[in-house]
Amino acid sequence: QVRLVESGGGSLQAGGSLRLSCAASGPAFNYYAVAWFRQLPEKERDFVAAITAIGLSAPRPTYASSVKGRFTISRDSAKNTVYLQMNNLEPEDTAAYYCAARSRTEDLTRPDYDYWGQGTQVTVSS
């Protein structure tokens, strides 16, 4: 069982930056792929970014086209934490952000993850 806790959300003006954190408890977190999704009320969860598990090769990131070049996903194995650095935020980035984890490696952009956090709100004003 993996428990995920997001933090770092907030309200800010367009052009600003935030860093979201996804802290995990539970065994073998470093062997899980981790992703960030975001969701508006009554909308589906949209893929934002994902990072592969820590293994023989360095973890590889994947980004949605809407955030590529502005967001960076990373993970710290010692802290069992995955980060989402968000720069040059736009009002369109406003949403609840969720982190998720799973051991399967195929198509990390689909929201069929085994474990989810409770979400953290990001609000960007123009």
In short:
This protein is mainly beta.
Report the principal-axis shape.
globular
Mean pLDDT over the residues: 95
Counting DSSP H or I runs of 4 or more residues, the number of helices is 0
> How far apart are the termini?
40 Å
Beta-strand percentage?
over 45%
Low-confidence stretches: none
Helical percentage: under 10%
What's the topology here?
Elements: E1 3-7, E2 10-13, E3 18-25, E4 33-39, E5 46-51, E6 61-63, E7 71-76, E8 81-86, E9 95-102, E10 115-116, E11 120-125
Parallel strand pairs: 2-11
Antiparallel strand pairs: 1-3, 3-8, 4-5, 4-9, 5-6, 7-8, 9-10, 9-11
Description:
With 126 residues, the chain is mostly beta strands. The protein is built from no helices and 11 strands. Strands 2, 4, 5, 6, 9, 10 and 11 form a 7-stranded mixed β-sheet that branches. It has a 4-stranded antiparallel β-sheet with strand order 1-3-8-7, with no helix packed on it.
